[in-house]
Design brief:
By secondary structure, the chain is α/β, with parallel strands linked by helices. It folds into two domains: 275 residues, Ribonuclease Z/Hydroxyacylglutathione hydrolase-like (Metallo-beta-lactamase, Chain A); 174 residues, Rossmann fold (3-Layer(aba) Sandwich), CATH 3.40.50.10890. 29% of the residues lie in helices and 22% in strands. It has twelve helices and 22 strands. β17 and β18 form a beta hairpin. The longest helix is centred in the N-terminal third of the chain and has 32 residues.
Length: 463
């Protein structure tokens, strides 16, 4: 029998769009099925699946972020009829993320149709959403909960085991074993790896032996700045803005990052390290995730309590009208809204209203990919494009780096070093244009393991 073959269809030479195909003996398993979020790559979300969706035996989800699960409704709409295996918490999170994505796409398409029709511009696929609510429900029906540490049969000769990855609630690294006898290979997919000592989720697990590792490299070319106390960093950024009566806008990923931010803010307010002020969680998806934290304690860290995510002054915004009313109020106040890279969602409307005021602060607490609006603002552009027009950026800009949900360069290397034995090969994914290549070279030099950066669509025979 042939040895298994790996082909990275997304997140190869780029950070988002995770899709990794494992083929063995005419069977096919897809690990993750995510959206491209970089602006210059978003058109590829409309590409037809190759190989065809109907030819896949199963899909495995490492976690519920949009760049890992966001293309599932389109996959199902194009003919996938197998099961989508994920941890129980991910099976609760992914439907929320996909439904929110469908809503945003439909709203954005409607807005573009209206604006471009007024301008007399010709229609393109950019006017239509990738999928709708019915497509999301069809994808949700394919979800199959998996238990951490238990084997899942995917197809003849192919099975998988999930392990804690420490990235977000329910996130997993997945070991996929394919083949028999001398051709048997175990491929370990890191998924997105978190950092140790996260107050909300367990540390990344120490994993089993494997023949090959597919590892992310989002921060594979840098080290996180030492942040002994994230609360102090938040206090230093927010307190001056509150003193000048400003509004603190926090573009925030609704899954995990918003909840971790609430955990830290609650500690600051309870300790009176910040003055009392309203905190608006203006993200329906982040609010729904609060309930997932309450109902999936098996996926949280030891000692965590869902009550830690609540405090006096916290307001959960309901509906668009209530969201709009926030922009009629003066500071000081904090507004937490999605999306985390400012690519869509309510944060764009708040930015449109607040960017021009120097009293305000845009506080980034997450990674900003190349080409996103968030990266443009973070890099200091004085004018950015919002809703078809140019906006001046006069607000203060700050970033608290200690929130990163991704392991940095040395933490990624440490994760590889904790494997019981060195793998035969390492494939590096989820990095910018040069990051994956530089991290692959580092793996080769430090661990003396053959390593390569994945190239989209190029098959890799497993040694």
């Amino acid at each position: 029998m042939p040895t298994p073959v790996l082909t990275c269809l997304g997140a190869a030479g780029t950070v988002t769009g995770s899709r990794h195909l494992l083929e063995y003996n005419q069977h096919r398993v897809l690990i993750d099925c995510g959206l491209f979020q970089e602006r210059h790559l978003q058109a590829h979300n409309f590409d037809a699946f190759n190989p065809p969706a109907s030819s896949l035996d199963a899909v495995l989800l490492t976690h519920g972020h949009l760049d890992h699960c966001g293309l599932l409704p389109r996959l199902v709409a194009q003919g996938f009829t197998g099961r989508v295996h994920a941890t129980s918490a991910t099976c609760a999170i992914a439907p929320i993320v996909m439904a929110d994505s469908a809503r945003l796409q439909m709203e954005d398409a409607k807005f573009k149709q209206k604006r471009h029709a007024k301008e007399g511009r010709e229609a393109t696929h950019g006017y239509a959403p990738l999928y709708d609510d019915e497509d999301v429900q069809a994808a949700v029906a394919r979800l199959a909960p998996a238990v951490i540490g238990q084997r899942v049969s995917l197809a003849p000769g192919i099975e998988a085991v999930f392990f804690h990855a420490g990235h977000i609630l329910g996130s997993a690294s997945i070991a996929v074993t394919a083949g028999t006898g001398a051709d048997r290979r175990t491929v370990l997919f890191s998924g997105d790896l978190g950092r140790r000592h996260n107050p909300l989720v367990p540390d990344p697990a120490i994993l089993q032996d494997c023949d090959a590792v597919v590892i992310e490299s989002t921060y594979g070319d840098r080290l996180h700045e030492p942040t002994a106390d994230i609360g102090s960093a938040l206090e230093a950024a927010i307190a001056p803005a509150a003193k000048r009566g400003g509004v603190v806008l926090v573009p925030c990923f609704a899954v995990e990052r918003a909840q971790e931010l609430l955990w830290h803010l609650g500690r600051l307010f309870r300790a009176k390290r910040l003055p009392p002020m309203p905190v608006h969680l203006d993200s329906p998806m982040a609010q729904r995730l609060l309930e997932v934290f309450r109902t999936h304690p098996e996926a949280t860290s030891l000692g965590f309590s869902a009550a830690d995510l609540d405090f006096p002054g916290l307001h959960l915004t309901h509906g668009q009208e209530e969201s709009k009313q926030i922009n009629e109020r003066n500071g000081p106040m904090i507004v937490i809204a999605g999306s985390g890279m400012c690519t869509g969602g309510r944060i764009k409307h708040h930015l449109a209203h607040r960017l021009g005021d120097a009293r305000n602060l845009v506080l980034f607490v997450g990674y900003q990919a190349d080409g996103t609006l968030g990266r443009q603002i973070l890099e200091g552009r004085k004018r950015v494009r919002l809703f078809g027009g140019e906006r001046e950026v006069n607000a203060q800009i700050a970033q608290v780096r200690g929130f990163s949900g991704h392991a940095d360069r040395d933490e990624l290397l440490g994760w590889l070093e904790r494997l019981p034995h060195r793998p035969r090969q390492v494939v590096v994914v989820h990095g910018g244009a040069t990051v994956s290549g530089s991290f692959a070279r580092l793996v080769n030099e430090r661990l003396h393991v053959p390593a390569q950066a994945a190239v989209a669509g190029v098959p890799i025979a497993l040694m």
